[in-house]
What does this fold into?
Amino acid sequence: MKRLAVLVVLLWSAAFARDRFDDFIDATEIPVLVHATSPEVRDRNGHLLRAYTIENGLWRMEVSPDQVDPLFFEMLVAYEDKRFYSHPGVDLRATIRAAGQAIRHGEIVSGASTLTMQVARLLEDGTTGQWRGKLRQMRLALALERRLDKQEILALYLRLAPYGGNVEGLRAASLIWLGKEPARLTPAEAALLVSLPQAPESRRPDRHPEAARNARNRVLQRMAGAGVIPMEAAESDSLDPAPLGRQPMPQLAPHMADRAVAMGPGRHDLTLDRDLQAGLEKLARRYMSGRGEKLSVALVLADHQSGEILASVGSKDYTDMAAQGFVDMTTAQRSPGSTLKPLVYGLAFDRGLAHPETLILDTPVQFGTYAPQNFDGEYRGELPVRRALQLSLNIPVVRLTEALGPAHLMAALERAMVDPGVQGGAPGLALALGGVGLTLEEMVQLYAALARGGEAIPLRWRAGVDPDKAPSQRVLSRTSAWQVGNILADLLPPPSAGPPGRVAYKTGTSYGHRDAWALGWTGRHVAGVWIGRPDGTPVPGAFGGDLAAPLLFEALGRVESRFEPLPPPPPETLLVSRAQLPETLQRFGPRDTVAELKLTFPPEGARLAATGLGVPIKLRGGVAPYTLLADGAVLATGLQRPEFFAPLAGPGFTTLSVIDAKGAAGRVSIELR
It folds into this structure.
């Protein structure tokens, strides 16, 4: 009975002690398990575009076990804690062994830290060699194992393990020391990442490459002995040199990444394509090399069917201070120059004011105090609307804008979901020539609407948005949008850009040569290029056609090896010659006076001898004052009488044109002998 009583007391005492120990462990205060990680910006396929350090300049990146090569875990457990999956946080066998060695030698000879204990130390930033610290780690490790599963403990290790300098966690270490994600690792790479946390500062590859190599090789040899990897792999990988320095973190799409991170911490998934983005950034730097240190460039390329931006280059170099490379010129408001003209023509087609084959006057004209001039200062007389757009003439498009009303043009821009910046009150006729502030992104969105048959949807750069739910608005009818595209596709491309007809594009140059533009689209993609100085100072000699257009075609060529064809005309499109058009569409302008003004002398095709007085001109009808042009050049203005002499010396063929005060015109072609 006595022995039984003793046994009962012992069992009760053991149970009591166990319960008290359990209470002791359960009462352990667990440190914060959630830690700040580097904000990340990724592309449409999950590839890293850019990451940012957290507080104190530390690299600590989010990673989960399923993002890591299984070989790393096999090596880590075999090398650091082979009974990790079976012990409760403390390995009693290893602890007893380490304690015995310490008693015999009077100092700690071998460690007994489990991976869970290492996590406990990292959570509290504790010491490793003092018994007080060890006991605290053991208590916290036991508590962690009761609240977390093994995968969650491994995830904490992956995030917090030190790898030297400002590098913390496996993923940051893999990117910085190996230049790659840890999803696929060679035995040598996995061994290096296993060995570094044991002595992160003394084994830093950038400062102590030989120590890093030796530590890595020790892991390889032990892994071969444990059967984790073949001995042949250990021996061959031991010959590989260790990394000699830090690899640069990806820094793609810096401007777009800054915009994303400004919206909040964490991971940001964009619609960009990493490879295309990298290629276009490199192309922009190469293209701008030697063109002036203060010049910058911006480029946006999108899928006009989905509205997804696939690449966005905000400057030639984010770090270039001379060119203010930190300024994102894709979002800077600038004057678009002539790149708004296609919208004006499309609106005129929609409202029945003109057709691509309609004749329109390119002659001196004045609207109140506003007298627009062509870029080259010359006049072409009467010519088809199609040709007026291709030549990017100013006077015809202002005539159309006056007929439309600038407010209707502004309304169309708003339907295209852009935010035009107009200074000085209500918009005037100069709006058609770039008298408004628009960003490159907005211009690409406008041209995407032209490419989509006149339907605008907002361009987007954040992934995860259902394109079917994106708002849409009709800017032009599909016929008018096709007519504009058909006209622009006939423009001669830049040298070495291939044959015409593959890209519908338009160039533009703002007043004072401050901005050079080129925008265009294929059957699938739309792109825009801006070149200029961020501070808005002039760039003498800069023209959109010469400077920006070649880069536009190169950019489109990077995303399409063979340009996807432009769409065919909609069935309702009126494809006829001018003579087959309704009479009201054959000419644009005041139709009651066009027929009344006649050049009665000289007759068409006349051969005249040049005299000192010039060529006599006789008119019938029209409203004075008259303007006289020869081959598009103004010879005289303010003529009040219907009879006068044209100061032509000859010899040769000449086309004479006379325009009256209401815009009616008459012309003849003659030969001077």
Residues 2-26 form the longest helix (25 residues). DSSP finds 21 helices and 22 strands in the chain.
